[in-house]
Amino acid sequence: MKKLEIKGAIISNDDKMVYDWFGYESTSPKDVLTFLSDAKGQEIEIDINSGGGDIFAGSEIRTAIKSYAGNKLINIVGLAGSAASVIATACKCLIAPTGLFMIHNVSSSSGGDYHDMDHMSEVLKVANQSVANAYKEKTGLSDKELLAIMDKETWMSSEEAVEKKFVDGIMFQSQLANRQKLVFNNGFNLIPQETIEKIRDTIKKPIKTNDDKNLIMQAQKATAQLNLLKLKGELK
Mean pLDDT, to the nearest integer, of 60-74? Predict the structure, then answer.
């Protein structure tokens, strides 16, 4: 399995050399496309920790990941915000228990007269809808619901992101469930604490009653069960 890290600012290919020169962490479409080409259909895992950046670069990265033919999984290990949250919708996605997911309106800087400002406003509305399309495909929420969430600049905890279906699950939960199951199974096969206390009392006294005989029979049965588990290697 190959691992890709999408971290730092999401930037255009043309800006990559500047970020590298300053030593700033960043991810461009070319970084991702090169990785996917080298992966050659192998299973891949992608870790995201990014506050976002260029929405066009984010869209290109999302499309590349979504188009990749091999098995793929995204892990949000820190933050998936803005353009990075769009990338996170490319395939099955898990989020760390401490992770955050943030979506907001597309923004831009512009200059000119009021005609230019009106035009840019319309462009940003179209861009918002474009981003909402990615979220809608993932969550099933309506355009109206998504645009309202974006308009508020919404920050979501791991639980909230799963609840709203922006991500598919929380990392490490399956391991926790397996540990809980293991403890439950072992507890089921061990001697109940109440029986242990009764056996301890009986050991200190001679057998006098049928109740004591039944208790010893319970102890022998429990011992046989424990020995069987040891033979199977299920109990050390």
Answer: 97
